[in-house]
Structures are given as structure tokens and as C-alpha cells.
Design a protein that fits this description.
This protein has 225 residues and is an alpha/beta fold. The protein is built from seven helices and five strands.
Length: 225
């Protein structure tokens, strides 16, 4: 085997082996990391050839009808400067189909949400290729930040976009899955949406997700009465 081939083989083996070594124990708290996760997040991005992207700005206003809370921006959303801009993510189509907005919208119109009584933020501001790249410390810090935002903005409903986001923010979560939840979070009523990503195997297809967006619309209408 040539020297170049040996180097290529070592590089491929090293990359393949890094995934299990960098895996994160979901039960770890407060920034405890294992394997490759011990590297600082920006350093890991550069080592992986991934250019660090600036955080995506929130789209917020005081007292919205619904505050949507995602987990963190993807790289495409950060590059374009708009929320939920991934090509396989039907978030904007779901909003319209569920009657949460009066007309069809695209990610380029995300800044228009406040005039419709809607707002957007994320659990963690750092853009990544995958939410699995977030560190436990970021998730813990993000949950505290979201609680402060909800208390400050005073939405009628906080809609966690994904079960994982809900479980990270509401540590005493008693019921799993999508839907309305008992109690409040920082003074707001709580609803959990399925992650709208096309990769979400638990809620495959547009219609399986639309059911819950429509239930959110009904839930928010009830909260406003």
C-alpha cells in the first residue's frame, strides 16, 4: 500500500472511530463530556472542516399568542439568516395548513411573525450540523435562558418544537410525546409539537405532523379566551 493510501486509510478510520468516542451520555449534566466532546465546540467545528456560523437572531415581541422554541439553528438557517430554512423542513407550510398564519409564508418572511402574534427562539443559539453536536452544558444553560425569555415576553402559549426541547426545559415533565401539557412554564401554557424535520421517524410525513399543528391552533385559541 502506498504512503498516500496508508494516510488516507488512517484518516478514514480515525473519522469513523471518532463517532462512538465522541458520543454523549444523555444523562450527563452540567457540561460533563466524554471522548471527543471534551473539545470546545468552536474548535470541534473547525477541526471537522465546519466553519463557525453566527447565532441566529430571535424573532420576538412582547406578549405573543405563541412563542415557538426550537432546539438550535441548522447551518443552512444560520447561513441564510432565517429560521427553519432547511429544504426538508415543512415548518412554514405546516403553519399555514394549520391556520396559524392567514397566508402561505416562507422562511424569508420569518420577521413578519410578530405582527401575527407569533414569535420564535431556540434552546441553544449556536448553529450546528446536528443538534447532537450541542454539549450538555449548552443545553442546561439554554433551558435557563428560555425560562427567562418566557417570563419576560409573557406569551399565552409556549410551543416546544420537538419533544427533546420540552424535556430539556421542563425537567419535571410527566407526560411524553406531543400535545398539550398540564401546568405552566414560566407563566405560559405549554404545548409540544413534533419536530417538523423530514428526518423525524416518529411522525413521518406532512399529515402526521399537521395533526399536532392544528391541535396547537385550537389550544392557542382556547388560551386566548
Amino acid at each position: 500500500m502506498s504512503t498516500r493510501a496508508k494516510r488516507a486509510r488512517r484518516g478514514a478510520d480515525g473519522e469513523a472511530a471518532a463517532a462512538p468516542g465522541g458520543a454523549r451520555d444523555p444523562g450527563l449534566q452540567g457540561g460533563a463530556l466524554i471522548g471527543a466532546q471534551a473539545l470546545e465546540a468552536p474548535a470541534r467545528a473547525l477541526l471537522g472542516g465546519e466553519r463557525a456560523q453566527p447565532p441566529l437572531k430571535d424573532v420576538v415581541a412582547d406578549r405573543p399568542r405563541i412563542l415557538f422554541v426550537g432546539i438550535n439553528p441548522g447551518l443552512r438557517s444560520a447561513q441564510l439568516g432565517h429560521h427553519f430554512s432547511g429544504p426538508g423542513n415543512p415548518f412554514w407550510r405546516l403553519l399555514h395548513a394549520a391556520g396559524l398564519v392567514p397566508a402561505a409564508m416562507t422562511y424569508e418572511q420569518d420577521r413578519e411573525l410578530p405582527r401575527l402574534g407569533l414569535a420564535l427562539t431556540n434552546l441553544c443559539p449556536r448553529p450546528t450540523r446536528s443538534s447532537a453536536d450541542l454539549t450538555p452544558a449548552e443545553l442546561v444553560r439554554g433551558a435557563r435562558t428560555v425560562a427567562r425569555k418566557v417570563a419576560r415576553l409573557r406569551p399565552e402559549v409556549v410551543a416546544f418544537v420537538g419533544v427533546t426541547v420540552y424535556q430539556r426545559c421542563v425537567r419535571e415533565a410527566r407526560t411524553a410525546g406531543a400535545g398539550a401539557k398540564e401546568g405552566t412554564f414560566a407563566g405560559a401554557r405549554v404545548f409540544v409539537l413534533p419536530n417538523p424535520s423530514g428526518l423525524n421517524a416518529s411522525y413521518p410525513g406532512f399529515d402526521a405532523k399537521l395533526v399536532w399543528f392544528r391541535r396547537l391552533a385550537q389550544f392557542a385559541a382556547g388560551a386566548a379566551r
